[in-house]
Amino acid sequence: MIRREQVAARLRLNPELATAALADFVRDAVHNAGARGVVVGLSGGVDSALAAALAARALGAGRVHAFCLPHRSSDPRSEADARAVAGALGLPFRVLDISAQVDAYFAAAEPDADAVRRGNKMARERMAILFDQAKKLGCLVLGTSNKTEILLGYSTVFGDNASSLNPLGDLYKQQVWQLARHLALPEAVVAKPPSADLWPGQTDEAELGLDYPTADEVLYLLFDQGLSAAEVVERGYPAEVVERIVALERANRFKRRLMLIARLSGSAVNLDREIPRD
Length: 278
Prior knowledge:
With 278 residues, the chain is mainly α. The chain has a domain at 12-202: HUPs (Rossmann fold, 3-Layer(aba) Sandwich). Helix content is 52%, strand content 5%. The protein contains 13 helices and 4 strands. α4 links the parallel β2 and β3 (93-95). It is globular. The relative contact order is 0.14. The mean pLDDT is 92.
């Protein structure tokens, strides 16, 4: 029986093997799509930095087009960190401010919108720009959401969870940090508190009400090991934490299965059969 003190070790990767496998994934996806490369939104955080680094390793830096998409409310340090990552990796880099279009919508139509709605609009605006730039450049959009975020539903539908390919989707947050340090990404980016930078002072862990190491371990036991919530609690995790994680996962499953289609035939898309990719 796996014990709590063993879980963190189970989450340790072979960094050389994981890096090679994820770079191969990116290379194969781009090749199979006949694309010229990828575009990626660099937020100044560790997830987008790692995704960009893996893509640069797979394709070469010149085929990874990095964009920083700040809003006037964004922390200026986020753009500085994004620039540092792009510089360290040698990526083409462009800044496109999203303030005008986001602010125009809320000023004209929804002046009383709360911070969450405004943050979601920013996330969707950023992804709309990335897909437009991908069309212009003949590229795919590189996803940057990790496994912890995906399972907890900590994402915006058609915002940061929209992409053409995602090399991080099977990496828990601890594993993202591990690979980022293995690839010697700027320590200021790797070490800073995770934040979507959707409003001043916002952090992932404060918004979730969970710390990432605990969330990773509980999710690993639930989904990789197939334990019940009660069995996870038996291993020493606080019941209220486990209950919150289970509730978040259940409430946000819809985000992992977009475009739910009503069944009318015997071969409904996303319900009955997968169409071969290649």
